Amino acid sequence: MNNNLQKKRLAQLAGLALTTSLFSSIAAAEVSGNISLTNDYRFRGVSQTAGDFAVQGGIDWSFESGFSVGAWASNLDYDTPDYNGPDIEYDFYAAYGGEVHDNLSYDITLYRYNYSGESDLGYFEMTAGVEFSGFRVAYWYTNDFGGSDLDYHYGELNYSYEFIEHWSLNLHYGYSIGDALDDGEDFDSYSDYSVVVSTELLGLGLSLAWLGTDLSSEKKVSDGVFQNDDTVLASVSYAF
Predict the structure, then answer these.
(1) Domain tally for the chain?
(2) Using 50, 70 and 90 to split pLDDT, how confident is the model at 22?
């Protein structure tokens, strides 16, 4: 057989094997999804829907190797008298995680936030987290928050406890700091926190949360775009 022809056939067989392996991995992946309705979409204490309802949903593919990928979307309201903002946020992520032992796990994730229309707000963000016996600590970082070319750091501590079967208490504390805050909002850091009670009923996930921040009174926004005042959030979700 001609050497060139033999090499070509070997390359074709290798490509076929790689493609077959890839499709087999995809077929073996665990697929899950969710859809939810909430009375406000809050991101780190700040409303993304001007205090109005949000419909959100996502889909995830998880592989036995520990890798996972997914997508998530929500409606938005960034409109002001001087700015016609995007109406949809759609995000993608790729992650890797695993267990050290039964009570200790870790994960590393890269997110890409995207926004509809001709918006230039899109950006990448990385996070690394550790979970231990109901506690989760995570650190988030981007050098281009909201397309601003400015850095943003976010640290969070969470605790989840099932106090009755199917009833959980979830506590959250987050701390934001970075040039992106100082440049756009005339302050360099703030904290957000929440207390959430969640349960399941008739196949639906239900939650009721109180959210707040330590922003000073002159920095509080209680009406319109980017509300950041203390609030109560209710949500209903369905996972499949």
Answers:
(1) 1
(2) very low
